[in-house]
Prior knowledge:
By secondary structure, the protein is an all-alpha fold. The chain folds into 2 domains: 92 residues; 50 residues. Helices cover 85% and strands 0% of the residues. The longest helix has 65 residues. The relative contact order is 0.09.
Amino acid sequence: xxxxxxxxxxxxxxxxxxxxxxxxxxxxxxxxxxxxxxxxxxxxxxxxxxxxxxxxxxxxxxxxxxxxxxxxxxxxxxxxxxxxxxxxxxxxxxxxxxxxxxxxxxxxxxxxxxxxxxxxxxxxxxxxxxxxxxxxxxxxxxxxxxxxxxxxxxxxxxxxxxxxxxxx
Length: 168
């Protein structure tokens, strides 16, 4: 499965880099190329993620020379295409434009991570609250059961006839 992810990532990087170069040569505005820039970053991220995540690959695939060579080639190709896109945007819109794009991308990724952390904390707090309520309900049920058993034993001892005297 990671091989497919790498191929998807590489194809996304290639298509995005090509669209960015064409957009820069056609004098399009940066807003027209925004989707291509996002695709470029996403494709690069997919290649890096698929390269780092080998859990779905068989041992043969992990240790095979072809797999290692393909991973290195794909990573370098993605890096090269990212550099070409950076150069095209820098030449068209100025060098600070690419820096702004990268900084904005990083800040958005940090924000996504921060929101995911907050969401995970909220889920954990909710789970703890539900567990607390469950423990209270179980404790009340056990308490009522114990009181009912004690009451039944007391009632049974009070209503039982006195023992008959045995025959001698």
